[in-house]
Amino acid sequence: MLGIFNKELVQPPQELNSPASLNSSLKPKLPKEILNHFISHSSNAFSIGFGDAMSLAYIPPEKTYSIHQRLFCGIDDIYCIFLGSLNNLSSLIRQYGLSKGTNEAMFVVEAYRTLRDRGPYPADQVLKDLDGSFGFVVYDNKARTVFAALGANEEIRLFWGIAADGSVVISDNLDVIKASCAKSYAPFPTGM
Q1: What are the phi and psi torsion angles at 108 (to 5°)?
Q2: Neighbour order of strands in the sheet with 159-162
Q3: Which homologous superfamily does the CATH classification assign to the domain defined by 2-187?
Q4: Are the C-beta atoms of 162 and 31 separated by less than 8 Å?
Q5: Distance (Å, rounded) from C-alpha 136 to C-alpha 180?
Q6: Is the Cα torsion angle 7, 136, 152, 186 positive or negative in sign?
Q7: pLDDT at position 88, please?
Q8: What's the sign of the alpha-carbon dihedral 91, 95, 98, 102?
Q9: Which pLDDT does position 77 carry in this prediction?
Q10: Where does the record place the DUF3700 domain (predicted)?
Q11: Which string of DSSP letters, residue by residue, matches 23-79?
């Protein structure tokens, strides 16, 4: 998975700006170059973008069954890429009053919408209810907000970095992050 968010949409933490990248022979790439590089690895890859504000890209899994899923979902102009699995999805579906056919990505969109519309629930309140190995990125096109999180058990790994134009790049593919962000990248923090 890949998410690229314009610096006006997501402000990167100062710690991601590595002074070593100024002296490196590797130079960070622009968002379009990063996106093209990512989707060139698979004929099944797809992406969705909203001008220069953001892009999400996704490569469906090659295996039909895996403990850790890769899911993409778009509901009411809210888009989610979900990696992993939730052990307590059935109880969360009942708690939120969702249909039995709801998958993890659909649930995350509904949980995000609950945070946005029915707050004031702090995000960590919703995240602490999630049991499993997961990482996700949600983009709300109407509110122009990004919500990303990574489970604490470290089975799923995400990385983030800074592109040449200052955009924030998030991916589960470390090679993509290294090639795209030069030295300005780090593991994504858990529980965010």
Answers
A1: -60, -40
A2: 46-50, 54-58, 2-5, 168-171, 159-162, 185-187
A3: Aminohydrolase, N-terminal nucleophile (Ntn) domain (3.60.20.10)
A4: no
A5: 20
A6: negative
A7: 95
A8: negative
A9: 94
A10: 2-191
A11: H-S--PPPHHHHHHHHHTT-TT-EEEEETTTEEEEE---SSS--SSEEEEEEETTEE
Beta partners for residue 86, in sequence order: 132
Question: Which residues neighbour 81 within 8 Å (Cβ) at sequence distance 6 or greater?
Answer: 1, 3, 56, 58, 70, 71, 72, 105, 136, 137
Give the E-state strand segments of 92-174 in sequence order: 132-140, 145-150, 159-162, 168-171
Nearest to 1 by CA among 110, 118, 64, 80: 80
Please name which of 7, 16, 11, 9 lies closest in space to residue 188, comparing C-alpha atoms.
16
Can you read off the two tokens belonging to residue 87? 């052990």
Domain boundary assignment for the chain: 2-187
What's the CA gap between 84 and 98, in Å, rounded? 20
- CA-to-CA separations, 153 to 84, 85, 107, 126, 190, in angstroms, rounded: 11, 12, 20, 17, 8
Its pTM stands at 0.89
Q: What is the DSSP letter of 123?
A: H
Question: What would the pLDDT profile of 144-165 be if each residue is shown by its tens digit?
Answer: 999 999 998 888 999 999 999 9
Length of the chain: 192
For residue 187, cis peptide bond before it (omega within 30 degrees of 0) = no
Structure tokens at 176: 């993509």
